[in-house]
Amino acid sequence: MQQARKQVVHRWSQLFIPTLREAPTDAEVASHKLLLRGGYIRQLGAGIYSYLPLGQRAINKIIAIVREEMDGIGQEFLLPTIHPKEVWEASGRWTVMGDNMFRLKDRKGAELCLGMTHEEVMTDIARNELRSYKQLPQIWYQIQTKFRDEPRPKSGLLRVRQFIMKDAYSFDIDEAGLDASYIKHDAVYRRIFDRCGLEYVAVEADSGSMGGSQSQEFMVYTEAGEDLIASSASGYAANLEKAVSVLSPVEDLAPTGDGLPELVHTPGKGAIADICQFLGMLPSQDIKCVAFMGTVAAPTADTPLRPVVAFLRGDHQVNETKLCAIAGVAELRPMLPAELELHIGGPAGFLGPVGIAEVMTQGSLNGLNSGKELAKLKGVSRETTSEGLKTIVIMDLGLQGRSNLVAGANKLDYHFRNVTPSRDFTVTATADIRNVLEGELDPIGNQPLRLGKAVEIGHIFKLGRKYTQSMGATVLNKDGKEVTPIMGSYGIGIERILTAAIETSAAKFASNPESKQEGYALPSAIAPFEVVVTITNIKEADLLAAGESIANDLAAAGFDVLLDDRDERAGVKFKDAEMIGIPYRINIGKKLSEGKVELVDRLLNQTHDVALADIVSTLQRTI
Amino acid sequence: MQQARKQVVHRWSQLFIPTLREAPTDAEVASHKLLLRGGYIRQLGAGIYSYLPLGQRAINKIIAIVREEMDGIGQEFLLPTIHPKEVWEASGRWTVMGDNMFRLKDRKGAELCLGMTHEEVMTDIARNELRSYKQLPQIWYQIQTKFRDEPRPKSGLLRVRQFIMKDAYSFDIDEAGLDASYIKHDAVYRRIFDRCGLEYVAVEADSGSMGGSQSQEFMVYTEAGEDLIASSASGYAANLEKAVSVLSPVEDLAPTGDGLPELVHTPGKGAIADICQFLGMLPSQDIKCVAFMGTVAAPTADTPLRPVVAFLRGDHQVNETKLCAIAGVAELRPMLPAELELHIGGPAGFLGPVGIAEVMTQGSLNGLNSGKELAKLKGVSRETTSEGLKTIVIMDLGLQGRSNLVAGANKLDYHFRNVTPSRDFTVTATADIRNVLEGELDPIGNQPLRLGKAVEIGHIFKLGRKYTQSMGATVLNKDGKEVTPIMGSYGIGIERILTAAIETSAAKFASNPESKQEGYALPSAIAPFEVVVTITNIKEADLLAAGESIANDLAAAGFDVLLDDRDERAGVKFKDAEMIGIPYRINIGKKLSEGKVELVDRLLNQTHDVALADIVSTLQRTI
């Protein structure tokens, strides 16, 4: 609870709280609707919002918590919004950021951008100011506005073009130091999200494309989210990009004939469901083929596309992030029919692993994965490289050790029976390239996985030496030798904390048939006010007097209190209070004659009468 | 003093405080040098700075004071940085802002700008949300980063391209309401600057060009400033643009001949000093002529320039802001020789008021001053308008009632004697168009004026209906009639508070020959730390223990304390503490054996010994 210092009573009649009766028609997700209806925000342009007083109060409370916790491990900076092109060229990201970066020119024609993130600027300070291992470790953070020219801004504050981030950067002399900085952030982030009242999971995240070694996202389950995560009761949690599971044993089919691949005529049975029914088997006994063309990180007109073919169980789905990582490519697109013919040799629906001629070897793949090899490929033709454009074939772990599977025969209307990996076909590599499924068992405690959409509220990341190296930051170590410090990068989306809290609460209210609550209730630590005192009728002098007195008592006890002193009907006041998400409401009404008021605990969906004398102590016990 | 809550001890050894031994060569003003030397800021680009931990601590303290005071009269918003072109077109300022506005396009080609100020965005919210007089008054503020593409960024944080402003906007139903909102801001601004420990003057400022009716700037005298202000012991204070003074009586020359204008041959005596010597008179007995061509607010290729000629005492200087205001033009440039011949009829050095043919009448001038008439002039030629391009002749009040003056005769090497205003020449208007001079008497208490450079830290401004009208914001008044609310606009430069405080202190230290202080000392309310406890030698265990203990006691008492626990020589530590501007320093040194430490009060330039037991109470009495 808030004990710190005496608060002033805020009077609704004096505040600018433009609640809306109806949700705007273009708002889809709950937090977008409710932030507009509650008078928290108004839109100025696509993905650009003004924060009105209630929104700003909530944001300020979140920032205060973040700042207080971050001050415990680091030092606050404030870096510029406008960056000269040069600092982004030094890291090589001026080009990489593409259209997501807002760019502009000043009156002299100098090229500038709006900061999307601040690795470059922080590393620039580090390279100029840090000279010795004695100055390390450093944890530098800021709370600042970021800009990204999102292609499709939407969902209110969830996907915007301007937003507030707490970003932090650690500089350490070595990996052990980075581990310590990373762990500090992990702990502080948990405290921050706990204090903000969020129900979150910390998930392993993919860190491959940024070259880092470890990465963890803090996620809140919500249908409004755009990420998919898997978690279980044993504490396992991972982004779907990274999640793995234990597969239950699957029964193989019995061999037919001599047990070797046997061509079967399967006219029109290109779909997995159809072939299963036709041959009387399960999808888990089928080999699915998914074929892509892969692109390198910064493709040019003459960069060759790379054929990437995935084989996995008929009931499994490819996870493209995992596949990209193992295949060493940046992006995938489905093969066109001509490419299927060229690289695999069959038509869609009847593709399979048996007989693919030009499969890349594991060794070449390892070379490619270094990233440098891929760059070398630029401009070479199929004729001039032996392994260059061979097909990368990746088999999912779910097929390992299996036998007598059914697979397409790379021939229209034909399948093979008795296909047994290793014996019947070669692959470039075998790896986990599939999405886990709801209910599969997690790998650490064998508990069923919960799969769901989620929104990211924070991210911690072992960045490595990408920026310190490319920008030339060095310090002298104990032996007087120049070494490159190692970095971590850590972010919290300030508005995401608010939107995630609203989404969570709105979903609870909506899914509880017994709830009489509308709108949402924010955790008291981040609500614009902790408690609203609603005078049901200000024309009744005793109600008015009691409301004023209770509000004053609560403020004196340190509560952040809003007094609804408007000349409105009680129904309107209750509805408005629900729309602005205040977690506790005290209704001053008829029961006052019995010395009682009504306390509505909107978080617990409970209402009870409380004697006037007990109001402060009751709230002190509750909040 | 800080009593609020227990603080933690900050250890210098753990902080990032990159002080510099030498001032960077490109830094000119004291605050620029000292902010760099003290490790407060680092430059990222022209007019773009990163705030390091000490800078950010000071900024955060200033912001906290501003927020606390502003919350007493208004409600905090946070408006976007990126604005769509449309909202600036609605007010007509998209064009007016010219090259000072940073402009950019998004990925879809939509035109955007970076907010320089937020009248448009606030008025946009007001026009969408305010419907009734019952919702007024509103005072809406924010603390936010602003962007201006300064042509010549310089002086460290004094003239930058990105800076933090507290900007506020009031909406009232009528002038009386605006008066009240304006007075509220005046009072709150004084409290803010008082709490920040600034020595400031509140000066009348010019409000003509923005169409407002009253305007006041809060200024701090400093040689680093770019404004000139005049103030006196009687409380009078005004920007030089606006300052007026009481002139002492001046003796007129005796008439010669028939007392009418008499042509005198004055070969080569074009300069005032020369003619005075030649004719044995004082500059105050001469009429000086200063001739300009004036331009309208948004000139185009075919907008005619307007001749504007000023006559004033030979010892006075034209104030171009005053002249622009009375002449109804936006900018002035000196006439070229051909223009002097055309519009006045004489050569430079021999210009005078007698015989100028085409002098505009007062009536036409009043029409022009409305601003609308000026727009009409666009594209008309000299032939098609009767008054259009006649010469605007303005006489300064200092010539009113005078007689027998000497003036150029608009003929090479000739002057007139016996020139008497009104009788011998006509003017378009007589007005105060001169700069006041140091030592002249102020108009309210007849005290001598102090003239000096100053930096603006705040500005309050009765804006009128310019934005509400152009953007179509209306509310219903008590009678159900649509009326246009009236606005005020109010700004505080957050960094300016810091730089002004540094400039003031550095100037005091530099000008006091008895000062042993280097650097500067910030007022304790805005210093990054209130007190630094300097352990002169950490290798002496008793000094170390005493330093830790004193720092802990001070923190427990609520002081924001920095413990210099570094393994450095005492001299280095003292110097560093002076460079970072901490107002109080406690030296833990040899006298500890007598149970004493040294308290250096850097604001008062005093050092005294204090018994260990008295340290906390002494600081409580002091800070």
From TrEMBL, chains A, B:
It is an enzyme of class 6 (ligase). It is found in: Cytoplasm. Its EC number is 6.1.1.15. The keyword Signal does not apply. PROSITE patterns: AA_TRNA_LIGASE_II. GO terms for molecular function: aminoacyl-tRNA deacylase activity; ATP binding; proline-tRNA ligase activity. It comes from the Bacteria. GO terms for biological process: prolyl-tRNA aminoacylation. Keywords: Aminoacyl-tRNA synthetase, ATP-binding, Cytoplasm, Ligase, Nucleotide-binding, Protein biosynthesis. GO terms for cellular component: cytosol. Its main location: cytoplasm. It catalyses: tRNA(Pro) + L-proline + ATP = L-prolyl-tRNA(Pro) + AMP + diphosphate. Residues 65-523 form the Aminoacyl-transfer RNA synthetases class-II family profile domain. InterPro entries: aa-tRNA-synt_IIb, aa-tRNA-synth_II, aa-tRNA-synth_II/BPL/LPL, Anticodon-bd, Anticodon-bd_dom_sf, Pro-tRNA-ligase_IIa, Pro-tRNA-synth_IIa_bac-type, Pro-tRNA-Synthase_IIa_type1. Homodimer. PANTHER family: MITOCHONDRIAL RIBOSOME PROTEIN L39/PROLYL-TRNA LIGASE FAMILY MEMBER, PROLINE--TRNA LIGASE. Belongs to the class-II aminoacyl-tRNA synthetase family. ProS type 1 subfamily. Consists of three domains: the N-terminal catalytic domain, the editing domain and the C-terminal anticodon-binding domain. NCBIfam families: PRK09194.1, proS_fam_II. Catalyzes the attachment of proline to tRNA(Pro) in a two-step reaction: proline is first activated by ATP to form Pro-AMP and then transferred to the acceptor end of tRNA(Pro). As ProRS can inadvertently accommodate and process non-cognate amino acids such as alanine and cysteine, to avoid such errors it has two additional distinct editing activities against alanine. One activity is designated as 'pretransfer' editing and involves the tRNA(Pro)-independent hydrolysis of activated Ala-AMP. This is Proline--tRNA ligase.
